[in-house]
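User: I'm curious whether this sequence folds into something compact or stays loose and floppy. Could you predict its structure so I can see for myself?
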Amino acid sequence: MTRLFIFSFALLACSNGLAAAENETAEQAEFARDVKPILVKRCFRCHSSVKQESGFRLDSVAAIMKGGESGPAIVPGSSRESLLFQAVTGSDLLQMPPEGEPLTAKEIDVLRRWIDQGAKSPLTAGATAEPVHWAFRQPARPPVPKVANGQWVLNPIDAFVADQHQQRNLTPVPAAPKHVWLRRVYLDLIGLPPTPEEMQAFLADESDAADVAAVNRLLDSPHYGERWGRHWMDVWRYSDWSGYKQEIRNSQPHIWRWRDWIVQSLNEDKGYDRMVLEMLAADEIAPDDHDALRATGFLVRNWYKFNRHAWLDNTIDHTSKAFLGVTFGCARCHDHMYDPISQQDYFRFRAFFEPHNVRTDRVPGVEDTTKDGLPRAYDADTQTPTYLFVRGDERRPDKEQAFGPGLPTVFGIELAVIPVSLPPTAYYPSLRPFVQQETLDKAAADVTKAETALAQAKQVESPKQDAVALAEKVLASATADLVAVRARIEADIARFATPPKENASQLRRSAAQAERESACRKAEEESLRAEQSLTNAKSATEISPDDKKAADAFAAAEKQLAAARKKLEEAHDALDKPADKYSPLGPMYPTTSSGRRAALARWIADKQNPLTARVSVNHIWLRHFGTPLVGSVFEFGLNGQPPTHPELLDWLAVELMDKNWSMKHVHRMIVTSNTYRMQSSSDQAHAENVRIDPDNRSLWRMNARRMEAEVVRDSVLHVAGQLDTTMGGPELSEDSGLATHRRSLYYRHAYEKQMTFLKLFDAANVEECYRRSESVIPQQALALANSPLALAQSRVLAKRLSDSLAAHKTETNASAAFVIAAFNHILGRPPTTDEQTECETFLAEQTKRLADKTGLTAFTSGAASAVKPSADPQQRARENLVHVLLNHNDFVTIR
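Assistant: Here's the prediction. I'll summarize afterward.
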């Protein structure tokens, strides 16, 4: 029976299937290409570096040869004598795995052929087995290849790409024309097309430095942070708050401050490593830096009202996917099916986040944090244990063992977790000077208001003694409160000084006494109010003795007065007792943080981490080329896709780290490479390229791709000169996107709060968007053809172009000049001869039809626009042409 558990990977195959397989022509089976994917899929849950049932591993040929408790699993050259083959065929009582679908006849045949052909290892003679997956090995900078096509190589990126061209007999296509490259790089780096003036200046500059100068200008532009901020907001799962009506269920209000931190950090070229540190643990590594604390919006975004476990599951899952490119999710219920991550590893990883919670701190100028504030993470309870959930069921925690924070054993690292002593302003944010000053100012304003009210009460022609008396009590209460606030602030300053001031005890007692005096004056005010209310209620019952409402009001007033008098009595009694405790100005939080997230963040951002730099440069590459180097962008593990250019991936990862994790440096290298400069058309491609590499995996041309949703909308506004470039601030209503002109990333984006126009063009999925989808649907064309946004901007731009041409009067053929200007302005290129002819004909026919009032084309209909169409037939025709060009494929495509 021991042999039954050698490996959980065997299946019964139907005899007919095996017979058919044995009759097939035996082609060479390779371990890495053919065999290992089967083992990963069906066996690694029980036989990998994470778990070894019966002491048996299947993650390398050497381990398979060694076998487990029953000895070697295979006999090279003889599948029938191999335990592995006996298991998959179900012979000798072996029927594995005990759960799941059996292997197909084709999969079993692969194993049979590999064993019968000698069970060859992919390693060279004399080499030792390498059980560690490539993604879990630290990247090392590989040597830059020397290639035959050396004249094509402008930087190391080109060398690695050219090396693969050479290996696969591919010929790169020519470079794109200058105007195409400039438009491409503008859209990639700032998300806006170049203006005609910018294009003309670039085309006129024939110096060797023109390209680099253009790139540097774009990287220095504040629009760079907005463009790449939206990219990273996708990866980091940005979402404004969502819920039912005004009920907050996910994320938090004011999380836009995290969005502004992302944009600002990118514009400053803050190192990617530092960004990771601040997002995961700014409250521990920079607890007094309120600019950095905005970054913990990464954690705040996962907040979920109804289930703390779901909240933490999302935090674990998306921290690992976003920064490490590894999926932890399935290990919540059982050991990972593919990667060396056990269920225990999952809950050790959870322990990093177990203590944390979310709070909202005050910001200058706003006392009410529901109106504005700084949502941020902090450790609320460091004593909360982390238990393993049996089969992932949160209702069945295994309380026999609590887990401390730790990494999966595959990384071979034990992190030192050191608790963090927080500065007073971190755990008692009301110590911040602006809070103290604003609290004082409010108390002083209340005194001024009360003084004014008393003066007004006395100035009436026949002043009512009760009104004057109450105003006097209000003033006394406000004055006492101001004294108490001042005393509490002075006591706070002395108490929390380092070291505490000598008079701290005296000031503490004074503050306690002042606060009691204030409470007494407030109780006197409330008691007088209650007395006057009772008097009024009594008068009402005397006037209408049978009025039930009046009687009820009288009874309520009596209870209110009794409560007020009791409170007043307690306040007077408290005055006679010694006290040295006073109320803080605001909430107080734990004075220490666990240090767990800081330890995790430092490991993730460490150069020794094998995953972080690879994952980040892969995301950058994806957004420049439309396809990543590793197709499974959040899955670098055994179930992921291998890199198309593994040496290039590692070279870029090391380059990022060696250049202080500067993302701008990586952008600059990419967009100035010949790999990036290539044209996207295959018209001039070598005939063999399409046959050898139809999917362009080896990058023999550039990939054309449709603009992202935000770039489509922003570009429509930009070419019309109507884009509002104001940066930052609270999110704007998603319903105002067609009428207002801010950049798209500033509009509310949450589960049930998304701009329809952006959704049609595949805006980010707020739940998870590591890679945007790119659909082609009729509604997209309709959105550009009929939306008020496109209609209004068409008319605005047509007028601008017409006014410009009229002012210069350089062309005798006005229609021809308008067509050229419109193409250059909207598409960034002049029209072809055919396009010029077609558009001039369009203008002539449109003008005639409009003048004859025979009807309008489809492009003049649609949704109502804030900008009315021109009454002049010629200008109306021009508006229609501009509208057509905004719907042109070249406008919405990055070529």
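Summary: The radius of gyration is 36 Å. The first strand starts at residue 242 and ends at 244.
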